[in-house]
């Protein structure tokens, strides 16, 4: 869960205006999340491995559905590899690749997906998704049916293959001397977004899902800005007073909110958003821009695009990747890995043919664009 969503939910819930946002989302026509479709799989034998988080409620049902699907296709039974608290998916996925898996299915939440993707980067094995978590950010951006487990199984085993970018964040804490590096697929950040994630109550998240973040957002929204130094693509650093800095591979959040409509998961670039409101009015201004898709820049939000990002801050500050808190850092370095991940996604919907006879309706020549993806 990232700052923009938290702020929108917090403000709109507090001001009883959620209905306006829902109506605007319902009216929005969904756009394609990217363009790099590689191929549609032909029928044939596949070796399937599944990295599964056994504590997820739907994990037993996912096992049964995957076994049935492989049996129905005439394939070998899937290889199941369970995650643990100490081994959240990377080692299991690496073992699956070494065992000759054609597709490695990540059955869990965003953390499981991130660890499996890290092992599959720049590898011919494909990543399949079974969204069993709360956010399921990548699955939502790909248009996967997050509430339809059988359909998700079908996509993971038979969906289209495409390559998408990945991001890598390396962070250092000059106070503790700790360093770490991790991959992300959707969005990361430093500042308020990570603080809200850390403050969200687990019991509330279990009851109401991702809307639980709004409660923590209301509590933490008032606060002081922090000086951060930001450098993009090696340019001279700029010092800004900010509340949060986001670096995104994909811009769509839960509830259908397109926070960064221009973001593409296969363009080899990161979308960097610096948010610097210092009052409630500033947050309302920012929220209004997102909801209404106001095209012009505002003083409280700055949007840039880059291949590399370096952020420095005087005191250790919380960070997050794809909705998971990733500790505190004084320096964060982020870079994009273009088209590093082969992934299974739903086939794009074919447009419905329009009836002829109406004004300005001309039949396409030679069936042009009848099944073409954009």
Automatic annotation (TrEMBL):
This is Diacylglycerol kinase family protein. Gene3D superfamilies: 2.60.200.40, Probable inorganic polyphosphate/atp-NAD kinase, domain 1. Keywords: ATP-binding, Kinase, Lipid biosynthesis, Lipid metabolism, Nucleotide-binding, Phospholipid biosynthesis, Phospholipid metabolism, Transferase. Its cofactor is Mg(2+). Residues 346-374 are annotated as: Disordered. GO terms for molecular function: kinase activity. It comes from the Bacteria. SUPFAM superfamilies: NAD kinase/diacylglycerol kinase-like. Residues 43-173 form the DAGKc domain. The lineage of its organism: Bacteria, Bacillati, Actinomycetota, Actinomycetes, Micrococcales. The keyword Transferase applies. The keyword ATP-binding applies. Belongs to the diacylglycerol/lipid kinase family. It comes from Arthrobacter citreus.
